[in-house]
Amino acid sequence: MKTETIGTKTGGRIGANWNPENETFWEAEGKRHARRNLLISVPALLIAFAVWQIWSVVAVRLNDVGFAFTSSQLFTLAALPGLTGATLRIFYTFLPGIFGGKNWTVISTASLLIPSIGIGFAVQNPETSFTTMAILAALCGLGGGNFSSSMANISFFFPKKAKGTALGINAGIGNLGVSTVQFITPIVITTGIFGAWGGVNQQLANGSDVWIQNAAFIWVIPIVLVTIAAMFGMDNLSSAKQSFKDQAVIFKRKHTWIMTWLYVMCFGSFIGYSAAFPLLIKSQFADLNVIHLAFLGPLVGAAIRPFGGWLSDKLGGAFVTFWDIIVMIAATFGVIYFLNANNFTGFLIMFLILFTTTGIANGSTFRMIPFIFPAKEAAPVLGFTAAIGAYGAFFIPKIFGWSIATTGAANLALYLFIGYYAISLVITWYYYSRKNAEVKC
User: pLDDT-based confidence at 12, cuts 50/70/90?
Assistant: First the structure.
């Protein structure tokens, strides 16, 4: 491997004295290494999100190909990856600092082969038990865990002035994995693209053939390719190495818990709505054939996230977050209004606005963290807040399921979410946005 001098020490492509805050170093050496690691991190994270959210689309199709699961069981399958993914994120937060960012990216990306191959075989047999399906759904949480380690790793590569944009790109394009899986699954399951290797087809009630296993098998080759790219193209930063004890100091910081609350507000909403949206559309507008439009929500939410980071670099993260929450509350009321009117067009528009606000706030809150915390603490805080925020992928589908089962509509769930957003608005204003705020960021 070529050895280059960076700072005053050498060590592979990147030496021990990594210092992106030094403008001379950044322009001469740091920028190109940071961009290379980001370039590989982005597709790795996109694939991770796709695997994490496979069940948001597979669950919708299971009963169409011979399974006989209840509505509650289907919502549970869509929610379980959120539960395990969020829990894994807590641990993944600290692993890049312990094992090295490159090393952990290779391991965590390769692990996605387990649920991808397992689901591909399991869905071909309608006799597969709900327990087996639940285990496979839980294993998709491996993809969810990757976000925390990825964001913690990338944060070390960029200076403060560029963190909002860099983290927004990594997370935003990574989040596109949700809409990607929801967009391509209806396409890839319509043909036997893997031939005999991909298994036999299933038949729908209308007589058309589908290969539902393709929803999982389609990710196997990309996982292998990105794992190889990470192995040879990414770097470990010796300056980023920290023990768990060193990183655990974040749990003593008040603002760790405040920012965690705020990230649940935005990312918890984004990933929770993403997991529930297809089933929500199917349950609330059963007479319409519009399930194929579900990918639009995660698409706009993910695509706008880099803009949220960039805008926050220009205007300030707290300022953007505060006004974004106001629009979020208004959009949620709009969703309720059009649900009551049984107007799908209005419902979809309001939900797309809601997804947009979650994406912008995802970017703005993650721009706030590097300004609230020193660099060594900011990385684990980014990962930990992402971990807790990811529980939205479990609780939001479950709350929607509970609301529909209890009242026959999703309104009650949406009112609860509005209450959370209102509290978040006050917190943002008090701690970060008002004139004499404790931390202006």
Answer: low
